[in-house]
Amino acid sequence: MSEDRLWKFKRPEWLNSVWARNAGVYAAGGLFSLAFYTLLDSAVWSKSALNGSTLHVTFVDWLPFIFSSLGMLIINSVEKARLSADSFSYSGSGVAWKARVVLFLGFAALAGGMAGGVTVFVLKFVVPGVPFPAMTMGVENVVANALVGLSSVVLWVSQNMEDEYSYNLAL
Amino acid sequence: MPTAGLKTIIALSFVLAVGFLLVILSCALWHAYYPLLVVATYVLAPVPNWICSHCANPDDFVESSGAAVLDLGRFCTGFLVVMGIALPVILAHSNIISVPAMVMSVIGGLLIYGTIISFAMFFQEEQEF
């Protein structure tokens, strides 16, 4: 826990409790739910009678969210202890390197989802100059992908408290 | 841990009844029965936590696999709790239910969920090992 850490900035002391860790995981679930229902809201609104325009939410609008969620799943499937410890290599050599490649793929999917959301927003809504009640569908797409990113950040930070957590329990 | 007596049970059941009343009223007054989904959501919300806490082995806290299952349960519970609030908001935004119905079903759902949570908190002692 000294200089082999992945991130170099320190977290504040109050974060190192079981309570803060559990609250972080709950908050991550809530943020992901918020992201999903933001996007669902745009889809339901697009089908409802309030949508006067000819624009509708199609599969293309869901694709960035699917990529973001996939990236979040990949990131959180990587066991955090593998990232900094190259020493206990019972599954071949260079476990940390492999874990970092998988983690890179996860972050790439997450960032790709975010970029895809912005792309859909720009190409489908900004460039044709859609007026505002229908423009909300594009804004909600960007917001949903940003919330998925925020959710995975919260989940990542709270799962990194794990070593302190198990240390407290071992005492 | 506060002691759970007869008054607690009566108060909790009263709050639960008020919550159900609000949700059912929000459906019946406007003849749109979508807010009933909120009740199902909040009843289902603690279920992932319970299942995952039974799946995780309580003996080895140091083992990371148990903590991962617990985290999955907490993630799903957080998802469902926010879903209970987000669902009426979506329905009201698309004019499927009216805004007063949304407010009533959100308040009723929160009362129901608060009852479930405080019930689990008050009567946890019997399940302790």
Written account of the structure:
- The complex is a heterodimer of chains A (171) and B (129).
- Chain A has 171 residues and is an all-alpha fold.
- Chain A has helices at residues 18-47, 59-77, 81-84, 95-126, 132-159, 162-170.
- In chain A, helix 1 (18-47) runs antiparallel to helix 5 and helix 2 (59-77) runs parallel beside helix 5 (132-159).
- Chain B is mainly α.
- Chain B has helices at 6-28, 36-44, 47-55, 64-93, 99-122.
- Chain B is flat, with a radius of gyration of 17 Å.
- Chain A binds chain B through residues 22, 25-34, 36-37, 40-41, 44-45, 47-50, 79, 81, 155, 159, 162, 165-166, 169-170, and chain B through 61-62, 64, 67, 71, 74-83, 86-87, 89-91, 93-96.
Q: Which structural class best describes the helix and strand composition of chain B?
A: mainly alpha
End-to-end gap of chain A: 17 Å
Gyration radius of chain A (Cα, Å) is 20 Å
What proportion strand of chain B?
Answer: under 5%
Q: What percentage of residues of chain A falls in helices of 4 or more residues?
A: over 70%
List the quaternary state of the chains: heterodimer
Strand percentage of chain A: under 5%
What is the largest interface, and how many residues per chain?
A: A-B, 30 and 24 residues
Number of distinct helices of chain B = 5
Quick summary of this structure?
Chain A: One of its GO terms (cellular component) is membrane. The complex is a heterodimer of chains A (171) and B (129). Chain A is an all-alpha fold.
Give the helix/strand layout:
The complex is a heterodimer of chains A (171) and B (129).
Chain A: H1 18-47, H2 59-77, H3 81-84, H4 95-126, H5 132-159, H6 162-170
Helix pairs in contact in A: 1-5, 2-4, 2-5, 4-5
Chain B: H1 6-28, H2 36-44, H3 47-55, H4 64-93, H5 99-122
Can you give keywords for this protein?
heterodimer; A: 171 residues; mainly alpha; 6 helices; 71% helix; 0% strand; elongated; B: 129 residues; membrane (chain B); transmembrane helix (chain B); Vacuolar protein sorting 55 (chain B)
